[in-house]
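Email to the structure team, subject: Delta-aminolevulinic acid dehydratase model.

Hi all, the expression group asked for a predicted structure before they design truncation constructs. Nothing fancy, just the tokens so they can compare against earlier work. One-line instruction: predict Delta-aminolevulinic acid dehydratase, return tokens.
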Amino acid sequence: MSFSSLVSEIAYRNSEKDDMRSQVSRARSYASTAATSVSISGDISSQLHGGYSHPLARAWQAERQLTKSMLIYPLFISDQPDEETLIPSLPNQYRRGINRIVPFLEPLVAKGLKSVILFGVPIAPGAKDALGTNADDPKGPVIKSIRLLRRTFPELFIVADVCLCEYTSHGHCGILRDDGSLNNAESVNRISDVAMAYAEAGAHCVAPSDMNDGRIRAIKLKLIEAGIAHQVVLMSYSAKFSGCLYGPFRDAAGSCPSFGDRRCYQLPPGGRGLARRAITRDINEGADIIMVKPASQYLDIISDAKEIGKDMPVAAYQVSGEYAMIHAAAKAGVFDLRTMAEEATQGILRAGATIIVSYFTPEFLDWLSN
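Reply from the structure team: attached below.
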């Protein structure tokens, strides 16, 4: 082959390669244009996947994320100093006497536990009467526990639940009339005295859960009169609904009513308007924090609470029945326990809660560290 023929052959082959590259480029451009026209209809902002393609980016999409400081862990304190009894209907939860509390809490505090809420459980014979006399007994489980925890864990925030149901022989959340109905005036006077006893013992926060009308104002006034209103948080169970989700708690605390039910003072499940009125009332009466209970079935009420009390912390109590259901379903293989606990808690946060009372707190102390 002559030199000129060789040059012509190379030029021809290069031209073919250029044509092929051009065809491939045009094909790619066509495919890209076709794909774009199919996947994007209208505004480019409809493309969202890139914003949560990475685990950290997904976390950034949350309006608020769970932290250890948001959690309050419920403790059942028995009047039997050395008791440590598993509660069958409440997985992994125990009634503990005062001698068992510190060894149990030490590792949790080391992991970052910030707050507990105390429920007294009188078991001794004759510990209950019609007036709930032992609720504010200086030698009772709650007041002794407050003082012990203040000494032992100075940084731990101590909430004392305030109610009479664990201490009354009839199991109701106040003092009754002869016909068995709730005497609101006498109940409020008694509840506010109990709250004062807990505050004076050193509780950082008192949390009346009885749902008697006007108890927030009564407690606030007594705190002011005693000169300690500036150092005690008043957290109201403002929207506490009646229902079937409290069974395991009542097993733990021995607080099941001996007759009737609590529907006349706890809110009816459909009473959204009543809940809004109760939240507004308790804010006006001096509550520092408002609580919704139960949590998962009342996400709309949590959202309402955040709207009404937009400048206030909103707490939600994931109650014993909610916790037990998650455990039961996980045990049956319906879903993974951790995954469901986290999803349920995210829902509560998303609805507007900034504080969560949860029996999952010990697990979250580990999960949030990993």
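The mean pLDDT is 88. The two ends are 74 Å apart (CA to CA). Ping us if the truncation boundaries need rechecking.
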